[in-house]
Amino acid sequence: MDKKEIFRLLLEQLDQAHIVYARTESSSHDYCQDDGIADIIISIKDFKRISYYIKEFSKELNIIPIQKLRYDASACLFVLCYYNHRTKRLIDFKVNFQFNFKIKGRLYMSADELLSNRIYINEEGKWMLNYSYYFIYHIIMYIDKETFSQKEFLSLLNCWINYRYGIAEDLKKYFTEDSIKIISKSFDEKRIDYLSTNIAYLKGDLQLKVRKRVQDFIQNKVSQLKCMLKPAGLVVGILGRDGSGKSTFVSEVANALGTYFTSTTTFKKCPAIFYKKAIFNKNEGYDNSKPHLYSKRNSFQSFLKLTLLLTEFMLGYWIKVFPAKVKSHLILYDRYFIDILADPLRYRIKNNKLFIKIIHQILPKPDLWIILDLPSHVLLQRKQELTYDKAEQLRYEYLKLQKILSNCIVINNEEEIEKTVDKAKGFIFNYMQQKVAV
Fold first, then answer.
1. What is d(CA 403, CA 371) in angstroms, rounded to the nearest whole number?
2. Ranges assigned E (strand) in 272-367
3. Which residues of 205-235 are buried (b: 16+ CB within 10 A; e: fewer)?
4. Confidence band (pLDDT; 50, 70, 90) for 382?
């Protein structure tokens, strides 16, 4: 089963449920080669129940719904995941449902208008937008982005050749005569360069003809508020001793899971609002790669540093982390504040476990925790700074963190990094699936 087959089965499900739909992409769109996103227009009535249909569809095909991104009041993107037995890999499939065509608060076409202008493609057994509406839908989209690829231009050129006069007439709703002349000349003469040169002018004209409506502005603000109350992003804290492979692991996880989120953000130790590396270290020869060689600060200095870190992590969450989480980012922390409890010497903190635990309770926390573990003799082959006894002591302290951290897993990173990442993906996907189901 590949993406094409999943999409075919999805459309069959929509037909069986008597859901009127229209594809917005071309019939040549290849889900195996392209970005894999299926764009579908449905009515507002069906949009309200689309989560139920996706849930039932996923159950039937044994597919995991990983993400539900409500990025606009009239649109919702679902990210599904399935295991390909041939390639032995997890593959993602994205399907975007919308009931109005809106961009940044401007309503260009309603669901009723779009669904009233669809055609049935017998060869594929699918409903699509007709030539005119396909052309207008996509040219508005590309003009708003102010960019045209050769492939995008050719797909619209095909519509223009087949239905030139109907398209030119329908364009009057969105553009002035001067803009329509520019568009007509571009496609009549097959000149993408002419269209690209005038794209800023076309965008300005389009936005003058189709202005933002108050109701759409309010709907978008309500949608943004809902996203803030239930962010679709994910924050993962990765903990472990020096030499346990955290940096490589963070990089591999970001690559493996990046397609399930709008973007990926990583932090090393802290968000870096105020705290910049060795801010308290007066010794210019301080070696960051060997933190355990230095003595602890006194009680007062330790208190000041812990207070600074409390401020750093608190402000960092609300200034950097939470906005990214609302935007559906994957946020990966290579270490987090609780790391101090397991390894205070690394931060030159004099033991004050009670104060550290109090700060931990106060701070916003990652959604998931992953503790990377290794046998000490393997770790010492990678990181020779520690003695065996010290490595064992630190291992014990990190493993103890699992008792106080919710949604936490310990993963042995002794094997190949691919296996470690697969275990982490399974843990993360299980959490995301439950999150989508709530």
1. 12
2. 329-334
3. bbeeebeeeeebeebbeebeeebeeebbbbb
4. confident
User: Which amino acid does the sequence have at 330?
Assistant: L
Q: Would the pLDDT of 264 be above 50? A: yes
User: Do 95 and 67 meet the contact criterion of CB atoms below 8 Å apart?
Assistant: no
| Long-range CB contact pairs, 339-342, < 8 A, 24+ | 339/239, 339/269, 340/306, 340/309, 341/397, 341/401, 342/239, 342/394, 342/397, 342/398, 342/400, 342/401
pLDDT (mean) for 152-163: 91
Residue 228 is predicted with a pLDDT of 78
Beta bridge partners of 119: 128
Give the helix ranges, DSSP H, for 117-213: 131-145, 150-170, 177-188, 192-197, 199-209
Q: CA nearest 96: which of 71, 118, 75?
A: 75
Per-residue pLDDT for 34 more than 60?
Answer: no
Q: Tell me how far apart the alpha carbons of residues 228 and 315 are, in angstroms, rounded to a whole number.
A: 17
Mean pLDDT over 199-211 rounds to 91
Query: Which architecture does CATH list for 1-129?
Result: 2-Layer Sandwich (3.30)
Question: How many angstroms separate the CA atoms of 182 and 175, rounded?
Answer: 10
Helices (H), 270-316: 299-316
pTM of the model: 0.78
Residue range(s) in the chain whose domain bears CATH number 3.30.460: 1-129
**Topology adopted by domain 231-437:** Rossmann fold (3.40.50)
Burial bucket for residue 405 (CB in 10 Å: 0-12, 13-18, 19+): buried
Query: What is the per-residue pLDDT across 47-97, written as a single tens digit (0 to 9) for each?
Result: 999 988 998 898 888 888 888 888 777 888 898 888 777 777 777 888 999
Residue span(s) of the chain under CATH 3.40.50.300 come to 231-437
